[in-house]
Input
Amino acid sequence: MSDNVILIRFGELYLKGKNLSFFENKLKDNIRAKLHGIECKLYFGRGRYVVKEYASADEDAIIFRLRQVFGIHSISVAQRCGYETDEIVALALKIVPDSGTFRVSSHRSFKKYPLNSMELNRMLGEKLLLAKPALSVDLHEPDFTLHVDVREQGDVYLYADTIACAGGMPSDTAGNGLLLLSGGIDSPVAGYMLAKRGMNLTALHFHSYPYTSQAAKDKAIDLALKLKQYCPKLNLKCISLTKIQETIHNKCKPNYMITLVRRFMMRIAQRVAVAENCGCIINGESLGQVASQTLESITVTNAVVSLPVFRPLIGMDKDEIIEIAERIDTFKKSIEPYDDCCTVFLPDFPLIKPTIEKVEEQEIRIENYNELIDEALQNIESIEL
Ligand code: ATP
Ligand code: MG
Output
């Protein structure tokens, strides 16, 4: 059994006022579910949670899992003692190195503790300097900061480091959204960002089998599995666009291909969203990134849906998106070289500034437009994740 405990802090939840208990209860459930299978005790106090009584060998796994729980702002691995001065001093001497610069930063929520935080800092600083002559104090840029947290009922926690976590709001507190999940870099990041705000996701992947390979679909499944680590209720649906794309290819001008496919995608997405009880559509568009993401293209594809469409990456550069993709571990999977359905029948000169009137002129050529959508929806596939 480890002597250590893990302190969990949450950030923005405090803005919640009267709804706080709803968010806290979700966060507690999510932490419990995430640590399922690891033997430990969870203590949920006011303002801060603690993981205790776990095997030392499980510490890294607990930290890894907690870093995937939205609503947790940071964690620290700490050691605990009682609030007798001798005990605190003994533990501080054990934790602080023998040489270098240091400072003590105390926080006292147990108001019956006789010293205030300034007095506790000073008392511990003096004891440390006396016992370890090679130490010196630096309040601004110390090599080592000893944090001392005197809690309610006189539990005292001492720790050095704070590990940043995912932040955001607890999963399952912000409704459901339909994520358009390709196999690319952007859409998993877009999903992550809404999941981070507490949204449950249903992912929808379009393929053009046999023009796109089974490997391309497997890649989308793998990406969905990666997102599921952050968004436990995520599920995945797949729909074939093959017949729709062949029809467009046969009946419409080649340079309208992408615009027309994307309008089909959005119409289908709206139907799936309604069926899956999702209140919005989420995609990975970033303004101007490619021809289909100019203001004119987005206007034309957005026009066929009434649900709000969230584009969390709209103002981000590719390198900023990649930075997040690397951090959430989707990047390596995303760059595997399999074709997306959008590359099937790709025209040499896709439209950069489509207009609704011109696009509708093309769509009229597809007499069985609605039947194609119905048929695609009838063949929707639910993937077990
Ligand atoms: P990504 O890296 O997410 O694939 P992208 O830069 O390749 O994006 P587009 O191909 O224009 O851009 O796609 C824009 C958005 O449309 C994607 O971020 C995604 O949300 C959605 N999308 C594209 N292809 C598919 C697909 N095959 N299935 C589901 N959604 C898709
Ligand atoms: Mg793509």
